[in-house]
Design a protein that fits this description.
The chain is of the alpha/beta class and 324 residues long. The protein folds into two domains: 2-201, inorganic pyrophosphatase (n-terminal core) (Alpha-Beta Complex), CATH 3.90.1640; 206-321, Diaminopimelate Epimerase, Chain A, domain 1 (Roll). The chain has twelve helices and twelve strands. Helix 2 packs parallel to helix 4 and helix 8 (206-216) runs antiparallel to helix 9.
């Protein structure tokens, strides 16, 4: 892990009293777990800490410890100077936080950027970054170790949840020996493994199964590039909009180099998830459309209708694989 300057980090901590932890739009377990876990950990230093998001997170994560403390607006009495620290977790850039940037500029905080995405814009006053880490919660834990902050049941559960989801239950290629070392520490410190597995993987609503059935019927495969799509109509018919993990269905199929999932956000915008195997680099593909992530897992939101987005992204994938 690279902390630009651990001495500078400790100086910021000594000088600041208020720490605000936040993550990207539509946060996943890595962003939520890292933000909430660090919020709790920094209270050990006697700091006033908050987790603030730009909008509501998915109700399926409401069981996460201390998620009921999440705010959706910055507290009004915050000092508008560098003694307030904005700690971004798992976010590649400031716009992905989803806040009106003028609000952040007016707050004028010290910004600490903690992430593991290769597409990170290297913003902020200080970086806590490790592109080899399997999750941002893994980076968060390494930071805690350097600051002599202790794990407890809640923190361990939060950080372990981010690690489990970002490694696909330790199946993805980003899993490394250090990931298991972190997992061991989390479990020894009380992480609720059985609860996490039950909540994330064993309590799927029936509506999601109906949506999955419709989505799988759209399967297309073009010379090692496979994709699925989900329309707004499908989500309305099934009363379900949770499409997390759908793209990973395709990674289980032999012969697929690039897996794509297209989700209609509106008549003129589409969310895409990309996964790769072998030598394919989907971070480069996603960057063409203003997105990013990792070589083997990335995402983007495109201002195109669903069908046009599929056409352009698939063509870009073909170019990347040398099929054109």
């Amino acid at each position: 892990m690279n902390i630009t300057n651990i001495t500078k980090m400790k100086a910021i901590i000594d000088d600041a009293d208020i720490f605000i932890f936040t993550s990207h739009i539509d946060p996943d377990c890595d962003g939520l777990g890292g933000s909430l876990g660090l919020m709790l950990a920094f209270r050990q230093l006697g700091k006033k800490t908050y987790t603030v998001l730009c909008d509501k997170f998915s109700s399926k994560y409401s069981w996460l410890p201390h998620s009921d403390e999440i705010l959706y607006d910055f507290p009004k009495d915050l000092p508008k100077d560098k003694k307030t620290v904005l700690f971004t977790v798992d976010a590649p850039n400031i716009p992905r936080l989803g806040f009106d940037e003028s609000i952040i500029n007016e707050l004028n905080p010290t910004i600490i950027n903690l992430d593991h995405h290769t597409s990170n814009a290297r913003f902020g006053d200080l970086m806590v970054f490790d592109e080899k880490a399997a999750s941002s919660t893994e980076v968060a834990y390494r930071l805690m170790q350097q600051l002599d902050l202790k794990l407890d049941t809640s923190i361990s559960t939060l950080l372990y949840t981010g690690l489990i989801t970002d490694t696909g239950r330790f199946r993805f290629s980003n899993t490394r020996s250090e990931s298991f070392e972190c997992a061991q520490h989390f479990l020894r410190s009380g992480a609720k493994h059985n609860l996490i597995i039950k909540k994330l993987f064993e309590e799927k609503p029936f509506e999601k199964l109906l949506l999955e059935q419709k989505v799988l019927s759209t399967l297309q495969n073009d010379n090692g590039i496979a994709w699925l799509k989900c329309t707004k109509k499908m989500m309305e018919e099934t009363n379900c909009s949770d499409t997390e993990e759908f793209v990973n269905k395709l990674t289980e199929v032999s012969g697929i180099e690039i897996s794509l999932f297209f989700k209609e956000a509106s008549e003129s915008s589409t969310k895409i998830s990309l996964r790769a195997r072998g030598n394919a680099d989907v971070n480069q593909i996603a960057s063409v459309f203003g997105g990013g992530g990792h070589a083997k897992a990335a995402g983007a939101k495109i201002d195109l209708c669903l069908d046009e987005a599929i056409k352009k992204v698939v063509n870009e994938c073909k170019k990347s694989l040398g099929h054109n």
